[in-house]
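Allow me, if you will, to draw on your knowledge of protein folds for a short while. I have a record of one protein: its chain in single-letter code and its fold written as discrete structure tokens. The full record is reproduced below for your convenience:
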Amino acid sequence: MSFYTGDERGGVPGLLPNPYYWWEAGALMGSLVDYWYYTGDTRWNDVAEEGLLFQVGPNDDYMPPNQTMTEGNDDQGFWGMAVMTAAENNFQNPPPDRPQWLALAQAVFNTQAARWEQQDCGGGLRWQIFPWNNGYNYKNSISQACFFNIAARLARYTGNQSYAEWADRTWDWMTATQLLSLETYYIYDGIHVENCSEITPYQWTYNAGAFLLGAAAMYNYSTSAAQAQTWHKRIDGLLNGSLIFFTGKNHNIMTEVACEPVDLCDLDQQSFKAYLSRWMAATTKWAPWTYDRIKPLLESSATAAVSTCTGGGNGRMCGLKWNTEKWDNNTGVGQQMAAMEVVLANTIQHSPSPVTDWEGGTSVGDPGAGGADIGRKTKVFPHVSTAERAGAYTAPQMGRRSRTAGRALRALNNHTLLDLYSSRFTSCGTTYYTIALGKWLLMTNEAENIKTILGTSMDDWPIDGPRLLSTLPVLGPDSIFTSNGEAWNRARSMLRPSFVRDQVADLQCFDRHIRNMLAAIPAEGATFDIQNLLFNMTMDSSTDFLLGSSTNLLTKASPEAQQFVRDFEYASRESAKKARLGPILYHLPHRKLQTAVRGLREYVRFYLKRAIAEKKEGGGKAKDRSYVFLDELLKAEPPEDYTVDQILSILIAGRDTTATAMSSVFYFLARNPSAVEKLRAEIGSVGEEAPTWEQLKHMKYLNNVIKEALRLFSPVATNSRTANKETVLPRGGGEDGTQPILVQKGTPVRWTSHGLHRNKDVFGPDADEFRPERWESDLRVRYVSSHHHHVRDAPPPLTASFSWEYIPFSGGPRICLGQQFALTQIAYTLFRFFGAFRAIEAQDSGPYLLRTNLTISFPYGCLVSVTRA
């Protein structure tokens, strides 16, 4: 531990100093867990816990932004295997508000499963995650080994067959490519995707060890005698193959044969023997018959390793070449880890067996973990404090694949997944095919195609795929957002009467909640998160409107209401994660999500039953307002679960989309004081504290501000449909993309309003800027009609011929039922807010970042301060 500086003043927890790389720091954390497991000595436990948690990254999946210039699948895999060991051995659990060991291992697995590629070499993981890193065109065995190892161990720990299927798939791919020879059980380094039959023939100890332990986990998991026999044979084969790494007079001393005899082991390779030692010992717990073969090899290797530990100023530094029985004048983290691991491995028979989820395991899992990074290949940098940035961005971990990475990192722009979509539309055209989770996906930002999908040929394009999977666990099968065809028509017909003008124009219910929000804003000049207040306010107002009983988050929420909101937000977030995992991993069980969904549905069911009882009693107790959505819904006497589905559907639409829309308006106004001045002037001209719906409707600049914010920040930024038959879209075919394009049955199509609304051909060269004046009635938008190849004047925005370039509330028959309700709430909030405050100022200079769940939001809030009127 004399090499580790992460626990020192100014150090970064979890990182090793230059020239060691990030992955080896993860391996070191795993060695500290091993040290405790074998010895019971807790002196390094807090250091290991801190390091393992500090490096998880913003999405808790070991993809920290400061490693995007170096991180490969193998790097991430070593951190994943370290936390898997922590879970299996009941290492001290993190605090409840931090990510847990099992969940972190699942997050690594989920992000890597999404990167599995069929198009190059018939499967496998690339070495690199990000296309700009050297080695992206290489599929190396250690990346497959880490993935196989984690999948197999997750199968054993959780008992879930899906993990085992991925382990089988990885094994089969390795043998099909002959990177793992079934004749010798040698494992070779890797292949380049340009020539999948040309194998790089080097063999490394850590490949053999990772596959050996994964095979032992699969043997231990086996659910039939035939499976157990298969894995028994494979374990024996891998053990035979690993004998190539034991040299010396009696062929019993571990050696890195590809580099050690010729003095060419680099910094990485100097540590590899640590992992073969670690995993050979662990194998004996899950495949007990191997103990008699493995223990003698570990004993002789440990004796040889200790004989080299005589160097350095303290006389305890170990060498690399154990065969020489003397220090070789070289030492480092790798040599020390290897010697420690092989010595500790000899006490394996005295150590407890690894636990499982149902037999002694205490670590909490999350099958949907890592969903926010599924498929990501872009650089993402979170908003961090100055102190964090100093630690993270100056960490000496930038040289493994690119020696200029430090300078390149500082020059990076901040991107989101939505920005990536936009840039690809620029480079690939408005309609193109891509691969997502191993399946063809058609991307389009062509207005004519969107019009066809949502409007003229809507029946050919039902809701399916990720869009359906993200909402189905929460809303149920009969929701207006999860149903198609006649079922959707029935739901819409039942809900439509609740959004007629009388209900939309009634501001009485909403007024109480905007007053509560204004009262919650802190003193003038104080920084606060207005997004958080808006989410609380819209939850209060939505539950009041829907159920006749508010959650009262802004005043004094009951414990039941607080739990309902926690369940609601957790279920929304986790269901979106599951959808991003793809159709296979989507079906992994998620007990916490199921519990949350039960909780929020029971909360709604309570008010439903109360309303039914009051109806039977002839009206029940008097209400403070005449209209409650639930009462109106019950006039049709729908089934109970059906009613709950619809209530939750409207709640998601009325709460989340409205809150994020409001947040965007305040985000842009806080950065545009001239727009605030114009807005306040228009509000002052009305001369009312509480305007009518008619007055709000005719406030042109206020409505232009809302339109412009929704253009740049649509709450539902991406949408999708799936073709239910072979069909045709009007644009995207031909060499120039202007011809019709054939779409096969089952093809998902995705579009983004985020990119569509920034089309400079439609909205002008300043389309990325917030400028409400572009919506003034005399504005003539000039844009290129891509299918007629000429420039023409467009009629004023939001006329019929313009509507498909601007779809913040979607379009066609499934256009949002509550759009006027939402727009009215936003307008009323702005009116009341700027009646009370004369200025709003941004207090966050961080980059413009978005988080995507069922809706988008600002991941770090919208920090502002205000000046009272």
